[in-house]
Amino acid sequence: MLRFFADDHLGKLARWLRLLGYDTLHFPAIADELLAARAAAESRIVLTRDSSLARRFPDIEVMRLADEDPFRQLAAVVREFHLDCERALFTRCMVCNSLLVDVEKETCREEVPPEAFARCHRFARCSGCGKLYWDGTHYLRMTARIAQLKEELPGIE
How confident is the model over 67-92, as a mean pLDDT? Predict the structure, then answer.
């Protein structure tokens, strides 16, 4: 599976790629030299808006994104790498990139607003930072955006 490294200006894109289940690193204040070294060591594709990054570090694979809108950036990456938008949806933490682990609903009753607890069915916890996720209204909005992306890009999964 492809692995990405979003540069310091692409935090929202990193979150969307994580939502799709793609291993995507992002550090807001990392030096280009460290980003390039880690990307090379871990065989990651660097996503950037910096047109000189590929020239300065020819040993790494770089995709330059011209658009400033994170959702259009996502569409460009999905199109370029033929990413599957469903296979691993909601399996990574959008904050820290770690894998999510499904948890029994009852174990998180105290952490979830009562109305969400009553309405939601799937609960998952990040194996890294411990953040709790559930299939509430935010989940539904993101799912709708992914469906919109698939409509706009015929031929993607």
Answer: 94
- Please report, for the chain, the start and end positions of each structural domain, with discontinuous segments joined by +: 3-81, 100-152
- 63's CB contacts (< 8 A; 6+ apart) are 45, 46, 47, 48, 76, 77, 80
Q: What is the CATH number of domain 3-81?
A: 3.40.50
Point out which residues pair with 46 in neighbouring strands.
5, 62
As a residue count, the chain comes to 157
Q: In the structure, how many helices (H) and strands (E) does the chain have?
A: 6, 7
As a whole number of Å, the end-to-end CA separation of the chain is: 15
Other Cβ atoms closer than 10 A to 8: 16
d(CA 22, CA 32): 22
- Given the DSSP bridges, would you call strands 132-134 and 45-48 parallel, antiparallel or unpaired? unpaired
- Which residues, 6+ apart, have CB-to-CB distance to 49 below 8 Å? 7, 9, 10, 64, 65, 66, 68
pLDDT tens digits, 99-143: 999 999 999 999 999 999 999 999 999 999 999 999 999 899 999
